[in-house]
Amino acid sequence: MADQQLPAPKRFITGHDYDGKAIFDTQLSDEMPTKILTNYNFRLGYVTQGIPVDLAGDSDIKAYQSYITEPPGLVLHGGSILRFVDFPPGEGDMHRTLSIDYGVVLEGEMKLVLDSGESRVLRRGDVAVQRGTMHQWVNLDQEKWTRMMFVLQASKPITVSSSGEELKEELGGLGDEVRPST
Predict the structure, then answer these.
(1) Is residue 44 in some structural domain?
(2) Neighbours of 1 (CB within 10 A)
(3) What value does the mean pLDDT take over residues 120-140?
(4) Which of 13, 130, 157, 174 could form a disulfide bond with 25, CB atoms 3.0-4.6 angstroms apart?
């Protein structure tokens, strides 16, 4: 992949010492695992299992460690995923996950295009609440990469009101390089 000129983000995990004082946990590197795809860079910031999340005995950290070596699919049923995605200039793939996603633009400007043809431009600091719809991300800069941060959580099945059809996950061109939801 071409040089994207965006610095690698770091992740800092906190916890508690034996006496209950807040500390920075050093079990994991501050560097996030990165998966370089043909058109994107994915960074796995954190993964949790279960709601509410169990923090006792660092069980959340242990669960995340297992996903570093064997990453989850795009969405993890029964948990949450924090992911950073770097987008090259141009259009991305139209896709749908059965999830609620909070997508925050960290660098650049992105256009969110829906399969209805509607679209919105998101600038740095803007957030999209993506509710299982078919959508596409477009980096509006013709030269620079854009970065977004996503928090994804699986949703219950989505049914089309008019037909009763249950919508399915559709990964489009992502499906060649990204595992389906697990």
Answers:
(1) yes
(2) 12
(3) 97
(4) 13
Q: Is residue 4 part of a domain?
A: no
**Average pLDDT over every residue of 100-111:** 98
Ramachandran angles phi, psi of 34, nearest 5°: -120, 135
- As a whole number of angstroms, the distance between CA 40 and CA 30 comes to 21
Question: Does 1 fall in a domain?
Answer: no
Q: How far apart are CA 72 and CA 43, in angstroms?
A: 12
The rounded distance, in Å, linking the Cα atoms of 83 and 178 is: 13
**pLDDT tens-digit readout, 23-60:** 999 999 999 988 887 788 999 999 999 989 999 999 99
Question: In Å, what is the CA distance from 169 to each residue of 38, 129, 179?
Answer: 21, 17, 11
Residue with tokens 């954190």: 46
CB neighbour burial string for 82-121, b if at least 16 within 10 angstroms, e if fewer: bbbbbbbeeebbbbbbbbbbebbbebbbbebbeeeeeeee
